[in-house]
Amino acid sequence: MSERLLDIKKLSVTFGGLHALRDLDFHVDEGEIVGVIGPNGAGKTTFFNMISGMVTPTSGDILFEGESLIGLDPNQVTQRGIARTFQNVRLFANMTILENVMVSQHCRTKQGVWGALFNTPGFRREEREIREHAEKVLGFFGSRLVGYRLEQPASVLSYANRRRLEIARAMATKPRLILLDEPVAGMNPKESAELTDLIGKLRSEWGFTIVMIEHDMNVVRDVSDRVVCLDHGETLAQGSFEEVSTNPEVIEAYLGRPLEKQS
Amino acid sequence: MSDITADVAMTELADGLSEATEVVKGAFEIDRSKAVRFGGLLALALVFISLVGMPVGMDGRQILYWINPDVYVNHPDGQGLSLGYVALFLWPLLLGWAVGSEVVLEGMAATKRGAHDLVTGLVVGVIGGLGVSVLTMLLAWDREINPENGVPAYGMRDPLVNWNEDLYILLTFNRGWTFALWAWPLLAGLLAMFGAGLRLMSDPIRKAIVAALLAIVAVSIFQFLVDDLLGGLGETIADPGRLSNFFGDDPDAGRPNVDSVFDGLLDFVYAKTGGLRLQGVIFVGVVAAGLSLLGSYVTRGRVKAARQAYLDRPVAERTTSSAIGMVVIALALIILPFFTGKIVNELLANVGIFLLLALGLNIVVGLAGILDLGYVAFFAVGGYTTAVLTSAGRGESWPSWVPLFVTDDGEAVVGGWIIALVLVMIFAALTGLLIGAPVIRMRGDYLAIVTLGFGEIIRLLFLSDWLKGYFGGAQGITNIEGADFGFLGTVTGVNPRSVFYLVLFFSAIAIYVSWRLERSRLGRAWMAIREDESVAEAMGINTVNMKLMAFVVGAVLASFSGAIFSAKVGSIFPTSFLILVSIIILVVVIVGGMGNIMGVIAGSLVLIGVLGGPKQPGLLQEFSEYKLLIYGALLIWMMLKRPEGLVPNARRSRELHQEEFLQDAWLKGEVDTGDDEGEEGDAVATEVAPA
Ligand SMILES: Nc1ncnc2c1ncn2[C@@H]1O[C@H](COP(=O)(O)OP(=O)(O)OP(=O)(O)O)[C@@H](O)[C@H]1O
Ligand SMILES: [Mg+2]
């Protein structure tokens, strides 16, 4: 049996009176790609926010590699090996593309004031490594983010490329688990097909485990080993894409209650 | 035939006439509401400046003094032009120019410039001048001459401090209010018209005129600086032997007095009592205009092209050449104090102390984006720690194991200051941690307010009776010894040149530190925190630690400045560390250009050097009373017009002008429009082909 990388137990959070998540049980095994679906406001992003430490759960536990993440700051969670992207792309818009990826290796590097001031060999080596790794990560997306683009501010990028850069930034933190929040939102079919491919490669070539929130069912079907459907903060269904997508409750959550049942 | 010619002539004449009437008509087609608005603004500005007391306060300083240069008259009856009048005349010029500005949108033709611009300027000026006329009328109406001694009294003197005879004389040109009634609208109107007229001139001509005007005012205002510099340089040229005392305190020690070779020139340009002579005005104006024209016609676009070429070079090469530039500037700065007198050296030393502070704050605010309003606290910690360690006059309560680097006969211990400095550094870092740790978790406005509070707390601690035995309360600590560096000399306030060198050395360190840190892993982390703190944290940056680090580095640099300050002044009091100091340093950083070392240097030179520090006089001593007013006005103006500062940091101006930047990038075709080039297109083609 493969190792249980992420194990979430009875996770709940309330905002005011609103149960954004209720008693959620969820797990991810090493090397899996798990799709998370659900209608708008289901609590998917909140779920990610909780794993990454940006929102503190009201109750429940999150175990990563067997250790609890509860109470850790977001940077500590990243340090442990969980990286994420944001649904509403949040790049460092005025930093260059290269810098965006370099800065996210922060928690994997350690040179401080001393090294910087005296330009020590260790400092120079680390800078070189950071840069090489950054270029390698950016190279994963073909020619789009490299070459002359390296020195351009992130704000000039097209929407699709900003999404790619977000993924690159997450990859650069050298994580074990990547949380992708709607990675293909706003992309045209061709672009999303290509990104679906890349998501597959993230696992096969880079060895990342992936949890992905996505509304585009083609993408979810093509790439996920397993799918979880959330609605109103609760798990409606779990299983293979076929199982979940044919589950009547899931269909109901997406399409609404059939008329005859309502009466 | 002659008929025909006559006809043609007639039609031509008629055409000409109708054209002329068109022009005349056009001249009066002005944007009335705009003209009235600017006129009102001008009137307000003039009245405000008069009531604040600026014109009278600065009336003693002559700018032009050509008629009777050897007699000093406070109100010169048209004998020249004082700085006080310049403070008034400046505004019609500026607003006349400003009223003609317009936003030209892409793809829209700019409106044609013409006579209507002049008329608009005239209207603005006349309205503004009328404001002053009304003010003089009110003054005249309130002016009651005491029949017994003939001294005029003013009823409204009570709330308005500057409502007095001096203002009356100045505003009426000492010719009675009826004269002022028509003179002001006329004068202001002409000035504003001239300002507006600048827009009608061709670029080189306008530049030449502006250069001449600025040069005349600058040469006159900075008379004291020019005197000092040319005097020193001229003496050295006349007697190069002077430099043999290069490392002594005074280059002239033991040498006969020599006249500067520039004395003739200085006497030609300046009147004895200050201000330019007529020949000086012409000379300076012609030289400046000539140089400007030369610049426009001879070099043309070459300077710009060279600059662009420089910017287009790869970053690595640019770093080398800017390093060379730095070295050249440093050498120039090292030599400079030998050509300047004591007062200018004193000024440079003050600029240096504030530059050091500003460089430190620039790391905190400019790089890490922490708005620290209590920065003066670390300056104070540096100053007091040094004082405690190097003054025999420190409080009695100190236990004997706290070192005192003063010999028994009250001399500074050689190298004592350096050891003290190490302790200062440690203390400043600890204070930084102590204040920073609770504060740094806050963001934005909250953080600013809390740091403001902590800054005051530190000052109040030094002031308190509770710690009086240690820090002397309001009496402060006196008898602080200078920094004795053995054979290198002693740095004390008596010798401002030595202070300048010390401060230069530490500024160089601060510049190096900021420069290295900005280009390191820490600099990138700070940048990310500035952009979006929560995302930075999610990307694995320990924001608290990183911010704390910036805070501590800034604290240490400020404490250096404090240490130099106390060695220079020789005594320190809590009043040297008011909030005002924090604010002024912040203004220096903002006006200069946040996040940019050159900007910070420019800011300190312009603000501290020219206007003066919180207590230190600048070059323009006449302005010192209005220093804060000018600081405030400058800050507001900068925030509105050029928030990125005098010498902006490229990245920061991008942050501030995100939209314009993107627009420009788009026009240049640099924006990524999303349609993928090359490979993608081919992929589509092959996909389509089989179908
Ligand atoms: N910080 C917060 N404070 C209050 N309510 C919140 C907060 N964050 C999320 N919510 C609420 O929690 C619910 C779940 O939001 P969430 O963003 O997780 O939905 P989602 O499943 O990601 O939806 P979408 O598909 O639109 O992205 C919503 O009703 C939202 O308004
Ligand atoms: Mg969401």
How does this model look, in words?
The complex is a heterodimer of chains A (263) and B (691). Chain A is of the alpha/beta class. Helix content of chain A is 39%, strand content 24%. Chain A folds into 2 domains: 4-91 and 173-262, P-loop containing nucleotide triphosphate hydrolases (Rossmann fold); 93-156, no CATH class. Chain A is built from 11 helices and 10 strands. In chain A, strands 6-7-8-3-9-10 form a 6-stranded mixed β-sheet, with helices on both faces. Chain A has a 4-stranded antiparallel β-sheet with strand order 2-1-4-5, covered by helices on one side. In chain A, strand 9 (226-231) and strand 10 form a beta hairpin. In chain A, 46% of the residues are buried. The mean pLDDT of chain A is 89. Chain B has 4 domains: 1-30; 31-200, no CATH class; 219-305, no CATH class; 321-656, Orthogonal Bundle (ABC transporter involved in vitamin B12 uptake, BtuC). Chain B is built from 28 helices and 6 strands. In chain B, strands 1-2 form a two-stranded antiparallel ribbon. In chain B, strands 3-4 form a two-stranded antiparallel sheet. Chain B has a two-stranded antiparallel sheet with strand order 5-6. In chain B, strand 5 and strand 6 form a beta hairpin. Chain B is globular, with a radius of gyration of 31 Å. The termini of chain B are far apart. The model of chain B is unreliable at 68-73 and 676-691 (pLDDT under 50). At the A-B interface, helix 2, helix 3, helix 4, helix 5 and helix 6 of A face helix 19, helix 20, helix 21, helix 22 and helix 26 of B.
In short:
Chain A is α/β, with parallel strands linked by helices. Chain A is built from eleven helices and ten strands. In chain B, the strands form three sheets. In chain B, strands 1-2 form a two-stranded antiparallel sheet. A two-stranded antiparallel ribbon of chain B has the order 3-4.
